[in-house]
Amino acid sequence: MKETIQVEKLLSEYAPLMARIAATFEANKALQDELIQEMSLAVWRAFEGSSKDSGSGFRGDASIKTFVAKVAHNKAVDHVIKEQRRQEFTHDEEPDPPNRLNAHSSQDAMSQERAMDLMTGLRQLEVKYRQVLALLLEGFSQLEIADMLGIKENAVAKRISRARQQLTQIMEQQP
Predict the structure, then answer these.
(1) CA dist., res. 22 & res. 125, Å (int)
(2) Rounded to an integer, what distance in angstroms lies between the CA atom of residue 21 and that of residue 33?
(3) Which residues of 46-70 are buried (b: 16+ CB within 10 A; e: fewer)?
(4) What is residue 14's DSSP assignment?
(5) CA-CA distance, 27 to 23, in Å (whole number)?
(6) Are 136 and 160 a contacting pair, CB within 8 Å?
(7) What does the pLDDT read at residue 122?
């Protein structure tokens, strides 16, 4: 017996997760918004497919959060590939500068600056490294990440290690 999942409530609940994933993969705010819409539509279709017993979509093999993150990350990877291809043909566009919220204190400003530097560094990593770090930052275990990406857990551990090394180098090079 399958329970009916209220997709609108689910999308609302996991909107912050999808927004963070989008920000990890896309610097341009307008493209982030577009990516979030694509993710939301993909999640909706995935849950709609599961309610029709089509064999695709959410089967309950993992938590709903894990499933939503997997769908969102797959969309984000598709987006990165699409944007890389698009940029091969048009080099005249520069990404929007990162949005900076008004800081209420110098500590908030420093914390926000570090977060922006981290996001900038994450975006410089190869997609496979960006994925594992983003999922790790979302609180997923290495086993959950392996299941999401369809790779072995030790491969996830290696990617995390290499990603951290590369990110450390990137962060040290930033002014």
Answers:
(1) 15
(2) 11
(3) bbeebeeeeeebbeeebeebbbbbb
(4) T
(5) 6
(6) yes
(7) 84
